[in-house]
Amino acid sequence: MKKYLYIIISLAVLTILLFPSLTRAEEKKDSSTIQESHLAFSYVCTSNDSVCLTANLYIKKESDPFGLKNATIGFFCKEDNTLVPLGNAVTDQDGNAVLMVVISKLHPGKDGMITYVSRFDGTPKYTSVSESFTAEPAKLRITFNVQDSIRYLNVTGTRKDAKGQEVALTKETVLLYVPRLFSLLKIGEVALDEEGKASFEFPNDIVGDTLGNLKIIAKIEENDKYGFVQGTSNINWGVPKQYYKAEVPSRELWTPIAPLWMIITLIIMLAGVWAHYMYAVWELFMIKVNNKKDNPTI
Amino acid sequence: MENNEKQLLKEFAPQIERTGVQGYIWILFLLSVIGLGLYAFIQQVTKGHIVTGMRDNVVWGIYIVNFIFFMGVSYAGALISGTLHLFRTAWRKPVIRMAEFITIISLLIGPCYILLCIGRLDKLHYLVLHGRIQSPITWDVIAISTDIFGCFIFLYLAVLRDLANMRDFEELQLPRWRKKLYKVLALGYTGTEDQKKRLERATNIMATMVIAIAIIVYSVLAWIFSVTLQPGWHSTIFGPYFVIAAVYSGSAVLIISMWFFRKVYHLEQYITKKHFVAVGMIMLVLAAFFGYFTFSDYLTKWYGSEKNDELLIQLLFKEFYWPFIISNYVGVLLPLLVVGIAKFRTITNITLTAVVVIIALWLNRYLIVIPTLQSPYLPIQDSRPEWSIYQSTWVEWSLTAAGVAMFCLLFTLASKFIPIVTVAGNTQEAKPEDVLV
Question: What is the mean pLDDT of residues A171-194?
């Protein structure tokens, strides 16, 4: 028996010791003076001659990232080793700050590349941090045409050379998507030719809105030279979505009214069970009542 | 009260009248573990579910595993006690009360873990106000609440005669309030012929009901998983599989309870090796059934080679290799060897096997919940990579430990209130030595 007593005492002591240590660990973390902040910087070239710069500011808690809101992020463009401010943006509740910049206002280097910088200057609570990347501005345009009753989606890719002239974007892979409820549905993949053009036979079975409207997105993703490039366009080539009004009263599984068989089964089962409960309770009641009638024989 | 019953009560009186230093230390230890759980709970309520490992994709963690485990143990208690009562099993008296206590105590603790899964406890009443009968969650709420009532009535009927014995046993040194409480709870039972008949009738009905309800309620719990189109869950045998796994885990908990109370209250005379062998045999049969269901479930998934089922099985054999082996190989084969071979059939061996079975069955529930949530049909995307994998936290483990401690505490307190071995009618039964193999 002593053995068990020792085990119990040891476990109790361990618990008592562990309890305040956990508390202290939590307090220590909360009272720390300055926390390291991190910045995730991304960039998308859009079809309307602009660049969408997105910076996500976050800190790490137990290796989980937490976005910092209401922080001002400065966006810059590097020209001859000097930082030219592009503008500031304040982070939202997820820590995202977004700035749209018109490409024509930017001055690429001799190689046609532009270096973007995002910077958080820090606060007494969080460290300062900056991130940068270099990419060449590029653009994707989407057009549509019908030939011999076949629908075609055409993609044209361009980039700006060192002189600022638009030239064809060649031999790059472009992914084609249609936004769905949760994410993007990939409908195809094309490669740009020597003229920066590609054509794609548009599928006939993609569901659009009630009028058949679809949004098409063409993307170059994670390219070493151009980063992310995106072009969008709308077209009414989708299959119109149709809503069917269910018969009234509708008793499908997903409607507010349960199917009749389900209600009947539930009532029968519950009534059967509770009737037996009531009977058992009634017998208990009768045991108490009959107490005085008979002679004790226990 | 018969003389033999008086003799038994005299023997059990010390455990009811007094609590020794060791007993207080034990209770203090359990309270400190519960205190740790309470602290973890406060952390969870104030900081939110971020302090747990549950995230957008893997929305369930060890709380739901504990819920399934405790509910399983509860239904097993109901099934075992109900069956032993209905079949008038000769050796049941020393162990049946433990099975009844297991039923009620697990049933009180299990649902608490569901509450811990809910992020917005302030909106809990919506479950009743806006509950839809079509939802398996609503079925579960109805089923569990019905089961709690039934089990309480069954337990009350089962202890009524002993409550009357406690009331009538004048040598018992207890505070006046406790004696009064026994008097009120005994409902004036004096053992008249009419009272005996009524009690017998009600107990038989409730024993039948708790068996039926236990099967239905645990099937409902299984259907929460199996009616969803998730790899690993959408299975027609999940209902009976859950019921078998439940009774299997419950038989193991019963063996450990028998060992514990036998040691602590020196019940060697009443709970003998033959009781361990008898419950061990139940455990052995259930191990075989459990193994059969597990094999059948995984074989059909593996042979079908459906893409997501294949991914799930790969995950089980890679990331969850050891839990899978312990759960589905060790947990099935060990009872077959230890209880099946007469040479290994000792009290210690059977108890240790029961401990392994409990661990295996807990892991079995873990493997049902977590790997499936980590490999859904709709691929996890636009999510932080670390959020697609479940990692339990100290908060969840503390609350798990608190649940186990609460189970032990309530069991201890219940054994202080009423003898852990049934006294009423104990002498009418044959001695276990005479009736067991």
Answer: 92
Could you list the residue range(s) of the whole structural domain that residue A101 is in?
37-135
Same domain, A119 and A177: no
Please name the helix (run of DSSP H) or strand (run of DSSP E) that holds residue A42, with its range, or none.
Answer: strand A37-45
Query: Quick one: closest CA in B to A273, which residue?
Result: B209
Class of the domain covering B3-418 = mainly alpha
Rounded to whole angstroms, the Cα distance separating A88 from A120 reads 10
pLDDT tens digit string along B362-386? 999 999 999 999 888 877 777 777 7
- Overall domain count for chain A: 2
At B172-194, the pLDDT tens digits run 888 888 889 999 999 988 888 88
Q: Check CB contact under 8 Å for A12 and B25.
A: yes
Contacts of B384 in chain A (CB under 8 A): 64-65
Please tell me which of the candidates A258, A274, A284 has its beta carbon nearest to residue B134.
Answer: A258
Domain boundary among A116, A135, A154: A135
Return d(Cα B375, Cα B373) in angstroms, integer: 5
Tell me the per-residue pLDDT of A85-128, one tens digit each, with 9 for 90 and over.
899 999 998 899 999 988 877 777 777 788 899 999 988 889 99
Query: Quick one: closest CA in A to B164, which residue?
Result: A298
Task: Please tell me the distance from the alpha carbon of residue B270 to that of residue B321, in angstroms, as a whole number.
Answer: 42
Closest Cα in chain B, distance from residue A5 (Å): 7
Give the ipTM of the model, two decimals please.
Answer: 0.86
- Closest Cα in chain B, distance from residue A212 (Å): 25
Residue B84 is predicted with a pLDDT of: 84
B217-254 burial, b at 16+ Cβ within 10 Å, e below that, comes to: bbbbbbbbbbeeebbbbbbeebbebbbbbbbbbbbbbb
Residue A76 belongs to domain with CATH number: 2.60.40.10
> Which chain B residues contact residue A280 at CB under 8 A?
153, 157, 202, 205-206, 209
Percent of chain B with pLDDT over 90: 51
Residue-wise pLDDT tens digits, A257-288:
889 999 999 999 999 999 999 999 999 999 88
CATH of the domain at A199: 2.60.40.730
Cβ contact, residue pair A270, B153, below 8 Å: no
Per DSSP bridges, beta strands A129-135 and A114-120 are antiparallel
What is the distance between the alpha carbons of residues B45 and B201, in angstroms, rounded to a whole number?
47
Over residues A4-16, mean pLDDT: 59
